[in-house]
Design a protein that fits this description.
Layout lengths: L2 H9 L2 H7 L14 H11 L12 E5 L2 H19 L8 H12 L6 E7 L5 H9 L3 H8 L2 H19 L3 E2 L9 H8 L6 E9 L13 H4 L4
Antiparallel strand pairs: 1-2, 2-4, 3-4
Helix pairs in contact: 2-8, 3-8, 4-5, 4-9
The chain binds flavin mononucleotide.
């Protein structure tokens, strides 16, 4: 089948809308997200391909408003500290925008905190035993654990969209990972990877632009 044929076949499916209709939503209606919907979207997320099928992910669904506020406070505290650094003296405006980008999750009725832990393949193990420097080990493995989490988070956001919810994949709040992990009672080896606020969008999601596929795809 030609690529044009495959593309038009895709465009007529619900899959196409789940992918192309999703965009990041940053303002939410306060209506709670029923547990069965949360379970359904996380159920889709864990279908992601993942290194060694090790399924190193964990999800904590935060509904409690006080807990969400405490998580936001933790991010604000880190940003306050960074803002006081001499290196930040000329970045006041940028930091204000960044703070908004890092903290709006607290206004969503639900925040999914996504945690992961390190995955070790046999090659990783051998590289470590051999004493390869971390930089070189990372170059040769490209963090399969992080890639696996990325697959799951993307599916989570697409599933939320297919169910009529808005969401936003957020790593900026990970600045406050130790405090957020403490608030949620999550312990090593699990580490916070992202927060994903979920709720009914206050306004219809606006699609963001992408470079044409021809710009990023080559055939050899
Ligand atoms: C790894 C990753 C981290 C992101 N972190 C944030 C974040 O902390 N705050 C935020 O508002 N958006 C965040 N985003 C959303 C991106 O800004 C957004 O996906 C991008 O601008 C494309 O827009 P779209 O999702 O509407 O297609 C993140 C996205 C990814 C994939």
């Amino acid at each position: 089948m030609s690529s044009r044929g495959s593309r038009s076949r895709l465009e007529t499916t619900g899959f196409a809308d789940a992918v192309s209709g999703r965009s990041s939503v940053r303002r939410y209606a306060p209506d709670p997200v029923p547990h069965e919907d949360v379970t359904a979207m996380v159920g889709v997320a864990i279908r992601a391909a993942n290194a060694g099928n090790a399924q190193t992910w964990r999800f904590v669904a935060v509904e409690d408003a006080d807990l969400r506020a405490a998580m936001k406070q933790a991010v604000d505290a880190v940003l306050d500290e960074m803002g006081a650094w001499p290196e930040a003296a000329d970045l006041e405006k940028e930091l204000r925008a960044y703070r908004a980008y890092a903290t709006f999750f607290a206004e969503a009725p639900l925040v999914l905190a996504v945690f992961g832990r390190t995955y070790h393949s046999l090659a990783d193990e051998l590289h470590e035993r051999r004493g390869l420097p971390r930089e070189q080990r990372d170059r040769l493995r490209q963090r399969p654990d992080i890639q696996s989490l990325g697959g799951a988070i993307q599916l989570l956001c697409n599933a939320a969209h297919a169910m009529g919810y808005g969401s936003c994949w957020m790593t900026a709040p990970v600045l406050a990972a130790p405090a957020i992990e403490g608030l949620l009672g999550v312990e090593p080896p699990l580490e916070l990877a992202a927060l994903v606020p979920v709720g009914r969008p206050l306004t219809p999601p606006k699609p963001s632009s992408r470079r044409p596929v021809e710009d990023v795809l080559e055939f050899r």
